[in-house]
Write a structure and sequence with these properties.
Order of helices and strands: EHEHEHEHE
Distance between the termini: 25 Å
Number of strands: 5
Largest sheet: 5 strands, parallel
Structural class: alpha/beta
CATH topology: TIM Barrel
Number of domains: 1
Oligomer: single chain
Radius of gyration: 15 Å
CATH class: Alpha Beta
Strand order of the largest sheet: 1-2-3-4-5
Strand content: 5-15%
CATH superfamily: Dihydropteroate synthase-like
Length: 137
């Protein structure tokens, strides 16, 4: 049975790799360069989740959806460039936009409309060749 581990801690990620994890999910997009060589030498699938707060555990954050839409593209562009430069092939990278972790401000329209816009961004030419993981509630 494939093992999937969610962690933004490099020590936990290395341990998961040593145990043969099939998937690693990092809500910060694997920012620590000290773990990149271990990631590159493994066969593990890597899930990069966009999180609004950028550090610490993923939490639901009420925020302006326009800010989120703008930041997601920049986040994935930056993380993809760094990880591929570290020798991690694009076919092992999975993008998770973090749907459900950034509900709109109370005055905003329905969250589903923002989720649909976000999915359209992910279908753009920039990221459409990557695998996408989304949370459905």
């Amino acid at each position: 049975m494939p093992l999937s581990v969610n962690s933004f801690q490099p020590a936990t990620q290395r341990f998961a790799l040593s145990c043969g994890a099939a998937y690693l999910n990092d809500i910060q997009g694997f920012p620590d360069p000290a773990v990149h060589a271990a990631l590159a030498s493994s066969a593990c699938q890597l899930i990069m989740m966009h999180s609004v707060q950028r550090t610490g555990p993923a939490t639901r954050v009420i925020t302006d959806p326009e800010m989120v839409m703008d930041s997601i593209g920049r986040f994935f562009s930056a993380r993809l460039a760094v990880l591929q430069a570290a020798g991690i092939s694009r076919d092992r990278l999975i993008l998770d936009p973090g749907l459900g972790y950034f509900p709109p401000l109370p005055r905003e329209c329905h969250r589903r409309e923002h989720d649909i816009r976000l999915l359209a961004i992910l279908a753009s030419d920039h990221v459409n060749s990557y695998k996408i993981a989304v949370r459905v509630r």
